[in-house]
């Protein structure tokens, strides 16, 4: 019985120590010029190979082991951001990324290598009223308030 109690105490303290060794890094990622949140910006720690993406409000949350850490934030068309610090508790880091690529105009064009296409019209099928009577009930137009009546 004492052995079971001793094992329980050791496992409980090990679990508590393991839970206190992590902290959360959270914040928002936005455009430095406009302040708009950046949807799906990436934030990651290359040492622990863990990361996440910002949500529609630019918010992110990343759980990391306590101690010396470095996180990087990237978004296509923006200068990347890296911060190194000692993570001892839950930390908020709001990141404003600077745009590096600005385009005035984008023109997309294309040509089909197939010469046998004469029209882009979709195919059509004509159904007579007699054929529409054999369609399943779920395809019929509902005319009453009762379903499938």
Written overview of the protein:
The chain has 149 residues and is of the alpha/beta class. It has a domain at 22-97: Carboxypeptidase-like, regulatory domain (Immunoglobulin-like), CATH 2.60.40. Helix content is 15%, strand content 30%. It has 2 helices and 8 strands, in the order H-E-E-E-E-E-E-E-E-H. Strands 1, 4, 7 and 8 form a 4-stranded mixed β-sheet that branches. It has a 4-stranded antiparallel β-sheet with strand order 3-2-5-6, with no helix packed on it. The termini are far apart. The model has no long low-confidence stretch (mean pLDDT 80). Keywords: Receptor, Signal.
Please render the helix and strand layout as text.
Blueprint: H1 2-19, E1 22-31, E2 42-45, E3 50-53, E4 59-65, E5 67-74, E6 81-87, E7 91-92, E8 95-97, H2 129-132
Parallel strand pairs: 1-7, 1-8
Antiparallel strand pairs: 1-4, 2-3, 2-5, 5-6
Q: How much helix is in the residues?
A: 10-25%
Name given to the CATH architecture of the domain at 22-97: Sandwich
Enter the CATH topology name of the domain at 22-97. Answer: Immunoglobulin-like
CATH superfamily of the domain at 22-97: Carboxypeptidase-like, regulatory domain
Signal peptide: 1-18
Protein name: TonB-dependent receptor
Keywords: Receptor, Signal
Pfam family, one: CarbopepD_reg_2
């Amino acid at each position: 019985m004492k052995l079971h109690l001793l094992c329980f105490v050791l496992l409980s303290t090990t679990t508590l120590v393991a839970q206190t060794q992590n902290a959360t890094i959270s914040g928002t990622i936005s455009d430095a010029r406009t302040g708009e949140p950046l949807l799906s910006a990436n934030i990651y720690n290359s040492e622990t190979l863990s990361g996440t993406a910002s949500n529609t409000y630019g918010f992110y949350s990343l759980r990391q082991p306590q101690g010396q850490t470095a996180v990087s934030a990237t978004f296509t068309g923006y200068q990347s951001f890296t911060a190194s610090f000692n993570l001892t508790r839950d930390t908020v880091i709001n990141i404003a990324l600077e745009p590096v690529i600005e385009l005035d105009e984008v023109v997309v064009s294309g040509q089909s290598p197939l010469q046998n296409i004469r029209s882009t019209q979709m195919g059509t099928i004509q159904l007579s009223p007699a054929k529409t009577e054999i369609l399943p009930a779920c395809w019929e137009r509902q005319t009453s308030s009762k379903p499938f009546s």
